[in-house]
Amino acid sequence: MRKFASFVGIFGLAGGVLAAASGASAAVRVPTDPAPAVPGCGVLQPGASPVAQQAVRTACSQIGVWYSWGGGHGPLPGPTYGHYDGHDPASKNDGQRLGFDCSGLVRYAYFRATGRDILNGTSDNQFHTRLAVARFSPGQGSGPLLPGDLLFWGRGHIHHVAIYLGTGQMVEAFQSGTHVRAVPVRLGGDYAGAVRVT
User: Fold this and answer.
1) CA geometry: angle at 130 spanning 128 and 135, to 5°?
2) pTM
3) Cβ–Cβ < 8 Å for 151, 29
4) Strand (E) or helix (H) holding 63
5) Torsion of CA 124, 129, 186, 188, to 10 degrees
6) Cα→Cα distances 124→38, 93, 137, Å
7) Known catalytic residues?
8) What's the rounded Cα separation, in Å, for the pair 73 and 100?
9) Whole-angstrom Cα distance, residue 2 to residue 90?
């Protein structure tokens, strides 16, 4: 849940990535067949673009994978081993946990959906992406959201991101000691709004 500090992990060849990217915007070949269905996680309402739907399916295919602080930020998108964040005792084992932090999961989901590494960086970087085609304030709630929209939390600095599934549900890599999960959207606290990417 905390923001990612500089980290380059060991890239896991999970998900069948077929070719290496050279640079953040390089195209690579990725499989387009849908991920297996996960009960309670998927595209739960109509209206999302095919890219957003594929991002949702990819994120849902990672249900049960470890949250790992700094995970998912290797040279190529995909699960990596994380590291201790310096504060949270629950993250002390993240160096042995192959997985994702919140922004690493979002990065991987949209990489698999587009074939490009379009959301590299922290959740704060993802909130401020130039690829946003729509932004939604906290006061708008989940009413205008579509599957694949990115939900953010933080005041001043964004520290967490999740992917909207539809019908008030989301998929997220939450915090150290937990696994990627599908849960109801949390609109209270420091919810900062949502972004729809191109």
Assistant:
1) 60
2) 0.83
3) no
4) none
5) 70
6) 28, 25, 16
7) 102, 160, 172
8) 8
9) 12
- Is 176 in a helix, a strand, or coil? coil
Tell me the two tokens of residue 122.
Answer: 């922290």
CA 163 to chain centroid: 6
Amino acid in the structure at residue 2: R
d(CA 81, CA 74): 9
CA–CA dist 86, 168 (Å, integer): 34
The pLDDT tens digits along the chain (198 residues) read: 443 333 333 333 333 333 333 334 444 444 444 455 678 899 999 999 999 999 999 999 999 999 999 999 999 999 999 999 999 999 999 999 999 999 999 999 999 999 999 999 999 999 999 999 999 999 999 999 999 999 999 999 999 999 999 999 999 999 999 999 999 999 999 999 999 998
Q: By the 8 A CB rule, do 182 and 75 touch?
A: no
Token pair 């109509």 is found at 46
Token pair in block for residue 37: 């269905």
The structure tokens 């085609």 sit at 133
Alpha helices in the chain, H assignment, sequence order: 50-60, 102-114, 123-127
Q: Which segments of 17-168 are extended strands (E)?
A: 66-67, 80-81, 98-100, 132-136, 150-153, 160-166
